[in-house]
Amino acid sequence: MRRAIASAAVAVSLLAPVPASAIHLPPSREVRFQNGALVILAEKHDVPLIAFHALLRGGGVEDPIGKEGVADLAGELLRKGAGKRSARDIAVLVDGLGATLGTGAGLEASYVYGEFMARDQVVMVDLLADILRRPTFPAEEFDKVKAQSIDAVTAAKDDPRNVIEDYATAFFYEKHPYGRPVDGDEATLQGLSRQDVLDFYHANFGGDRLILSVVGDFSAPTMEAKLRARFADWGKAPSAVPAVTAPARASGRRVLLVDKPDATQTYFWIGNLGVARTDPDRVPLDVANTAYGGRYTSILNTALRIKGGLTYGSRWLAPRHTQPGTVAIYSYTKTETTLKATDLALETLSQVCHEGIDSLTLVSAKTYIQGQFPPRLETEDQISGAFADVAFHGLTREEFEEYPSKVAATRSEDVARVIQRVYPPLGDLTFVFVGNAAKIRAAVKKYGPLKEVKITEPLLSRLRSGARDGRHRGGERG
Predict the structure, then answer these.
(1) pLDDT confidence of residue 467
(2) CA 275 to CA 246: how far, in whole Å?
(3) Which of 204, 304, 307, 311 has most Cβ atoms within 10 angstroms of its Cβ?
């Protein structure tokens, strides 16, 4: 009797409204320079640190066909020589100050980020200006970074977890810019020259593309003056930011099998098109995604790992960009249980699409989100990155401040609606398997027309060769 009463009490408490957690971000203000650069400043004086994130619109989507990886290579080389400093000078300076500094490129932006002691802000701003405006791209550093990048791409294939999303996006998006791996492949990297990097930089870096977020222990007017002196006269990039078109949802099924003969496990990705970063349903979709496949006790992981014992992990992946990213089941299993695990994953997707998610699970997911979210916005580095991200997507700080209350207000009908809108039906799925093809080829053919590549071959050149499967691409269903 006591156990029954206790269970009823737990059920009642779980069905009660989830209280919204407060998010306290430091006051911030935006400054737009005449050249188009956007600067976000937020004073935070609890510790003597300053963090910054600089984004340059563009990134891997600007890589020319056949030169994939050039944006990433250029990004890595930004800190390998700038102004009068060599790569060693920059490394010694940053280490000597106890600071951090990183550079690189993502799918839609090149970036520089760092964290310095407040007393070193002049050095920080000077170094940032040199890195962004006066990189030297030394020939010896280019050769070294290029060789390291090729080695890294090759070595990553030893563990399919490192590469399955590259294969999946390249196969799913086909010729769309989102299908280009930011780090390129062995063949595209091998063909790059230092001149390609110089051409990319000179065409795509400029003040009009800059978003710079600075958070920490400083005076906002003083910091604005420092940044204005170093960036307000930076000319515009000669080329326009590429207008990435919205990709289309895929109709029907097809399968990519990536042969790794020494694999003892099969890694699989099953998905279709999702939503963009600014989708109006992004909050209820976060709740649905968390409940279905975004935490250890999710519906997907419970079925495949906790109850099924078929894997050590399974997740629902949902990257979002300025245009829609993908949504996909990701997991792995022993070679001999490939079909069993895949079928069980599909069963969970079908169940969620047809039956929705029960109230107890949704309330639990909302509570989980509210517990996980605030710690992501505590440090100067986290807040700086968050401000840069929302500015990049045309959003505001309310994206974070109002998020907990929007999660708390999400209703079951909201979740049911976005699942029907976004989650793909079982008839419209792209499958990617990485494993021992000789042992699973015959089995995975049941999921759709099959294309096979070897993991030892360069990803892009192999996928682009030969006949396509002729899949029809239709519009996204409502």
Answers:
(1) 30
(2) 10
(3) 304
Cα–Cα distance measured from residue 190 to residue 425, given in angstroms and rounded to the nearest whole number: 40
Q: How far is CA 15 from CA 9, 82, 302, in A?
A: 10, 57, 21
User: What is the spatial order of strands in the sheet that 450-454 belongs to?
Assistant: 314-317, 326-334, 265-273, 430-435, 254-259, 450-454
Report the percentage of the chain scoring pLDDT > 90: 91
Strand ranges, E, within 143-226: 210-216
DSSP 315-338: EEE----SS--EEEEEEEEEGGGH
Cite the DSSP H helix spans in 248-334. 282-293, 299-301
Residue written as token pair 């701003």: 125
State the average pLDDT for the chain: 93
Domains and CATH numbers, the chain: 28-231 (3.30.830.10), 254-464 (3.30.830.10)
Residue type, 209: R
Beta carbons of 157 and 96 less than 8 angstroms apart: no
Angle (CA) 448-454-460 rounded to 5° is: 85
Give the C-alpha separation, 114 to 129, whole Å: 13
In the structure, what pLDDT confidence band is assigned to residue 21 with cuts at 50, 70 and 90?
low
Q: How confident is the model at residue 169 (pLDDT cuts 50, 70, 90)?
A: very high
Per DSSP bridges, beta strands 38-43 and 210-216 are: parallel
> How high is the pLDDT of residue 19?
56
Closest CA to 324 of 368, 282, 384, 373: 282
**Maximum pairwise Cα distance, the chain:** 78
Instruction: Give the residue from 424, 444, 427, 241 showing the smallest Cα distance to 340.
Output: 444
The string of pLDDT tens digits covering residues 67-84 is 999 999 999 999 999 999
Query: For the whole model, what pTM was predicted?
Result: 0.91
Over range 418-429, report the average pLDDT: 98
Residue among 416, 370, 403 at smallest CA distance from 283:
403
